[in-house]
Amino acid sequence: MTESLFNRLGGVDGITRIANDVVDNHAVNKVVGVRFADIDLPKLKHAAATFFVSATGGPSDAYQGKDMLAAHRGMNISPSEFMAVLDDALLALEKNGIGQREREEVLYALYGLRSQVVAV
After folding, report:
1. Of all helices (H) and strands (E), which one includes residue 58?
2. CA dihedral 75, 90, 102, 9 (to 10 degrees)
3. CA dihedral 35, 77, 87, 33 (to 10 degrees)
4. 113: which of 56, 75, 77, 97 is 20 to 30 A away, CA to CA?
């Protein structure tokens, strides 16, 4: 049996580090950074980490936030902004030494959320 993506990403601690780096990347990204200027970054980091924990096979009750559609409704996120966010995620995965297979799985899963994030 294959180990869960949750475990392969380092469990809660590994995923928390990755999520923190993703949010930090967003905050300085020239394409999307302005969207994060007035956001409570520690709160967003916690939400991102718990979302990743639940979505990758960790405890299903870890994430208590809104679903992706509700969280992004009315933001009018463009396709280029969405791709910039995926780039930020890839950089965070690479920074944390995550293997190629796991990077592909995470990016595939994130890209699968596109219809719930872009232009909603």
Report:
1. none
2. -80
3. -10
4. 97
The reply, when asked if residue 72 is annotated as ligand binding, is yes
Which amino acid type is present at position 78? S
**Distance, CA of 7 to chain centre:** 16
Q: Give residue-wise pLDDT tens across range 78-96.
A: 999 999 999 999 999 999 9
**Domains identified in the chain and CATH numbers:** 5-116 (1.10.490.10)
CA distance 82 to 70: 16
| HSE toward the beta carbon, residue 22, CA cutoff 13 A | 24
The DSSP symbol for 65 reads: S
Residue 7 pLDDT > 70: yes
With 0.85 as the threshold, say if the pTM is over it: yes
Q: What are the tens digits of pLDDT across the range 31-72?
A: 999 999 999 999 999 999 999 999 999 999 999 999 999 999
